[in-house]
């Protein structure tokens, strides 16, 4: 009889330990899932905001392209406008490719020798803008004068046909600042923003939190510019913070004790 009672008690303890252990695993998993859903909401908002900023705020290239489409034969205003833009601290480069030949490149003392060069002699991103007939962003790239910049390229289409493309190089530090990635860290997230290189398909890291973190378990969102850009974020303290683990463990132990 004593042996049966001991066996029954052991079975009871085993069942309680198993159930409370499963409860702990469930709470741990659910806590991580809740934080992941929160991060996905943040990520969706941030991705959409970044795309809007890249298209509308970070560069004046679309306005220049639209002006050329109104009267493509009138380029007389372009040198003046280009030099006015270069007075802005964030603008490093302004160029116009007419058909497939570089027609203007400013500042002239740094890029004037590229005038007359064929489209194929430049970074593939120039050709990509023609092939896709759409807005393209690449960066950061090192310009021939050593400046680090993002290239914003917008085709000039006249009557539905490619006529050329406007190019504006915006200093990399300014673009990254406009994307406001630092606000992710203020919200408690580490981040990594990277793009697929149009040259060779490799991974080009645009900006990332300091420390070289592993983002294999981060939530990710990708969008096209038209090369694929990917933003990854994860909580600084992990999906389930250490303090939460202690709390869950204490809850499991307390449940077992009460049982």
**Strand content bin:** 25-35%
Uncertain segments: 243-249
Q: Using DSSP, what is the number of strands?
A: 9
Kindly state the mean pLDDT as a whole number? 81
Which term fits the overall shape? elongated
H and E string: HHHEEHHEEEHHEEEEH
What kind of sheet is the major sheet? 5 strands, antiparallel
> What is the count of helical runs?
8
SS-based structural class? alpha+beta
Assembly context of the chains: single chain
What does this molecule look like?
The structure is a single chain. By secondary structure, the protein is α+β, with helices and mostly antiparallel strands. Helices cover 45% and strands 27% of the residues. It contains eight helices and nine strands.
Compact summary:
The protein has helices at residues 2-56, 61-70, 78-86, 108-111, 124-132, 172-179, 182-186, 242-258; strands spanning 91-98, 101-106, 136-142, 148-158, 161-171, 189-196, 203-208, 219-224, 228-235. It is of the alpha+beta class and 259 residues long. It starts with a helix and ends with a helix.
Salient structural properties:
four-stranded antiparallel beta sheet, 259 residues
Give the topology, please:
Blueprint: H1 2-56, H2 61-70, H3 78-86, E1 91-98, E2 101-106, H4 108-111, H5 124-132, E3 136-142, E4 148-158, E5 161-171, H6 172-179, H7 182-186, E6 189-196, E7 203-208, E8 219-224, E9 228-235, H8 242-258
Antiparallel strand pairs: 1-2, 1-5, 3-4, 4-5, 6-7, 6-9, 8-9
Helix pairs in contact: 1-8
